[in-house]
Amino acid sequence: MAVKQLSVFAENRTGSIYEITNTLSTAGINIRAFSIADTQNYGILRLIVSDPRAAAMALSTEGKIVSVTDVVSVQIPDRQGGLTELLRVLAEAEIPVEYLYAFVASSPDQAYVVLRVEDNAKTEALLAEKGFVILTDEIIRQG
Fold this sequence. Notes:
It is a single chain. This protein has 5 helices and 7 strands; from the N terminus they run E-H-E-E-H-E-H-E-E-H-E-H. The chain has 2 domains: 3-68, VC0802-like (2-Layer Sandwich); 70-142, VC0802-like, CATH 3.30.2130.10. The protein is an alpha+beta fold. The protein has helices at residues 16-26, 52-61, 82-92, 120-129, 137-142; strands at residues 3-11, 31-38, 42-49, 66-77, 97-104, 110-117, 133-134. Helix content is 34%, strand content 38%.
């Protein structure tokens, strides 16, 4: 049930992120979530989009370096301590988190979190067992 995440190499220069988002917009792709990790010369733009396959093709056609990675996306309560509950479950199970970022859910009392972990299937099974809703590409596509 893992969600497809795009990682796009982006030079640290004016207009670089615009070029990526413009390519996606022109291709009819909706960005659901994003995160940018940068260094002095470049950054990695991580994206959850409405159509990962079409997005990767559109960006590659424009000469962008793109990789697709499976990540876990989970729904959490949008309230104080909601994220802490999720992270407690992972810590108690000794599941390390490489990185995470959040995005807005369609429901006002929920939030969505993207997790990069070593074992997606194990993490998804644990979280589902603990009552968390695991998101799929289909759920994200619908918004």
